[in-house]
Amino acid sequence: MDNSQTHSFKDRPNRTLIRLAVPVLFSLVAEPLVGLADTAFVARLPGSEPVAALGIGTVAFTSIFWAFTFLGIGTQTEVAQAVGGGDRERAVKVVSLASLLAALIGVILMGAMAFLPPIASLFGGVGAVNDLACEYMFFRLLGAPAVLVSLACFGGLRGVQDMRTPLFVAVAVNVVNVGLDWLLIFGSGSIPSMGVAGAAIASTVSQWLGAVWCLFAVHRRIGLTWRMKGAGFARLMQVGGDLFLRTGGVLVFLALCTRVANRGGPDQGAAYQAIRQFFIFSALFLDAFAITGQSLVGYFLGAGDRFQARRVARSVCLWSFGTGVALCLAMVTLEEGVAWLLVPPEAYAVFGPGWLVVSLMQPVGSLSFATDGIHWGTGDFRYLRNSMLVASVVAGACVLVVDSLRPDYVLVYIWLATALWTFIRAGFGMVRIWPGMGDAPLGK
């Protein structure tokens, strides 16, 4: 049976794409607010040590969990293809396996509590800052299973194109976290002030509540089972390996850029950080189309309807490119305002040229995100891994050349290398679809 015949995308492609992408966008924007809320409250504590400790704990925590993004991405693709093919039983098994695996990995990660002091030291924690960072990470690690289970459940829900539940969960987690932050960080009545530890406990409690909600939603929307034979454990692990290497390429390249920018002096470093924050924020808009495209492409391929899957690819690329153009124009217009808000006055001179480069690269960057989502939907993870590694090696070599030559306006050259990195990724992504380089899943 061709399940794609009843899908709304067939008759209303643009409306369907936007209807699914908007909740994804807001859920992506909501997720980083947990860390922002923690920072805002902890900044009210006396001294600079609490904020420094929070920064170390947050970076360490985020770095650890980047390695397990396959629990969400891989689950979303497998569930979407199973549902598209009418194999509801396999979708139940896949999301059940991913959720169980997420819980087990989370429990194992809790064992990192024994190594917190050296981890904090690795990120620059010394003395009181190290102690507070360890305290923060201890309580955050108690929520590790909840974070990973939510990640797997989000993938399952988005695989069946339920984009609203992840949004509701993300908003609820933020609301609970903000309320608990104020109560636990500063104390009230019989509840003592817990400082940085209170921020971690607030996040952990809210994430556990979110995980319970996610599991309930998955059970109601898809189903859960202990009978997981045939769920594709080996396939999920293969996806995990490919995404681990791909993520490693991203982290190494971005870390290299940050290092070279900071070696250019405090002005270059400050301007780079300001631009990088906006660069990451703009990615949220483009990821919304990528995640939506992943679900739709997976669904139609599962249904055996390659024609509709290619229509999805075209629509996602067009909408992403249009969004990239809009971001470009907005960034050019907002340059002075962003500089005033985020950049020290002495760094204005180096900020402007670098900001212009990043603004102009948004349209091309939009296609790199769009094609990532499309190829996630096809399950073409090895191709994405290889293209990312090629882009990171080539662009990373350019950054090293910049570091050795130390030209004026180092920041411009770093972002030009980043533009090359983006162009290579977008190029590989596009030619895999049109005309269909190699054994392309969407090739004619």
UniProtKB/TrEMBL annotation:
The family note in this entry says: Belongs to the multi antimicrobial extrusion (MATE) (TC 2.A.66.1) family.
Residues crossing the lipid bilayer are 20-45, 51-73, 94-116, 136-155, 167-185, 197-218, 243-262, 274-300, 312-334, 354-371, 383-402, 414-434
**Known PANTHER family for this protein?**
PROTEIN DETOXIFICATION 44, CHLOROPLASTIC (PTHR42893:SF46), PROTEIN DETOXIFICATION 44, CHLOROPLASTIC-RELATED (PTHR42893)
Q: Which domain of life is it from?
A: Bacteria
Q: Which UniProt keywords apply?
A: Membrane, Transmembrane, Transmembrane helix
InterPro entries xrefs:
DinF-like, MATE_fam
Query: What organism does the UniProt record list as the source?
Result: Pseudodesulfovibrio portus
Recorded protein name is DNA-damage-inducible protein F
Taxonomic lineage of this organism?
A: Bacteria, Pseudomonadati, Thermodesulfobacteriota, Desulfovibrionia, Desulfovibrionales
Give membrane topology per the record. Answer: Multi-pass membrane protein
User: Predominant location of this chain?
Assistant: membrane
What is the annotated localization of this protein?
Membrane
